[in-house]
Amino acid sequence: MTIRGRSGRGWDAAPARRPRRSRAKHVEPENDPDLWGPDPEAAAAAPETPQQSLRDSIREKKPEPPKDERERAREICLNQLSVRPRTRSELAAAMTKRGITAEIVEEVLDRYDEVGIIDDAAFARAWVDSRHHGKGLARRALGQELRRRGVDQEVIKEALADLEVETEEVTARELVERKLRTVRGEPDQVFRKLVSMLARKGYPPGIAFRAVKDVLARVSDEAEDYTEGHKVWEMGWEAKQEWAEGLALEAMDSEGERPDRV
Fold first, then answer.
1. Measured between alpha carbons, how far is residue 50 from residues 38, 47, 53 in Å?
2. How many CB atoms lie within 10 A of CB 247?
3. Are the CB atoms for 243 and 232 separated by under 8 Å?
4. For residue 259, is pLDDT > 50?
5. How far apart are CA 71 and CA 99, in angstroms?
6. Which of 209, 196, 210 shows the shortest CA–CA distance to 259?
7. 204: phi then psi, degrees, rounded to nearest 5
8. Contact (Cβ atoms closer than 8 angstroms) between residue 139 and residue 160
9. Handedness of CA 150, 152, 156, 159 (dihedral sign)
10. What's the confidence (pLDDT) of residue 261?
11. Angle between helical axes of 237-255 and 205-219 (0-180°, round to 10)
């Protein structure tokens, strides 16, 4: 009987050969590239492929041309305004500090003022509204903060005119009520602490004393025990102001408190 060789087709097709498994070559741990990465000497000696050269050229950053002074000035202003609204004086100080000439400073600020990007009057009104309702600051403290930011005195007066005396009195009583929840001490000490708190926030002696007396009269039947408050109430306006300022300085020294700042 003659056995023919397999034709490679049909029933007598030869089975597909499995690829031989290459034996893993033993590599010492100190030479294992999977642990330590490729050999730097071998990588340096290897020829650079076109693809690698292209990638390296793309990664190389081209030197940027020097920026125009006006462009630098505008960039400084926009960075400042991205944090919070700024006054004209604040932006001018920021540009001058970074070496922008006075002519460019004025040119850029005039342009920003023309298009409405900066508006000291709107800034002052928003500042008064926010700081009074947020921190409880009175006219005097608000005026000091705006002057430190370079706002013109006439603009400050117009912004403070929107803050009515009745609104200050209501805010002062609210501040006293909140402070009274945590303040401790003898009646005279409590009275002094409450008045000094209002003095640090810029309230005049008249509003401060009325607010403290009204709140204490409502919350305690022993309001008459605050004898020092009654004695101070008989003082003149100048004596009241001097006494209130002395209380504010005394409180800052003894309690480590400081006037509200931005």
1. 20, 10, 5
2. 23
3. yes
4. no
5. 13
6. 196
7. -70, 160
8. yes
9. negative
10. 41
11. 70
Q: Which residues contact 167 (CB under 8 A, 6 or more apart)?
A: 132
Which two three-digit tokens encode residue 109? 């600020």
User: CB-based contacts of 66: which residues, under 8 Å, 6+ apart?
Assistant: none
Cβ atoms of 102 and 113 closer than 8 Å: no
User: Whole-angstrom Cα distance, residue 110 to residue 102?
Assistant: 12
Two tokens, residue 219: 């919350």
DSSP percent split of the chain into helix, strand, coil, nearest 5: 65, 0, 35
Q: Which spans in 50-164 are helix H?
A: 50-59, 69-83, 88-97, 102-115, 120-135, 139-148, 153-161
Over residues 107-136, the mean pLDDT reads: 92
DSSP state of 234: T
pTM for the predicted model, two decimal places? 0.60
Q: How many CA atoms lie within 13 A of 94 on its CB side?
A: 19
3-state secondary structure of 127: helix
Residue 20 token pair: 């031989």
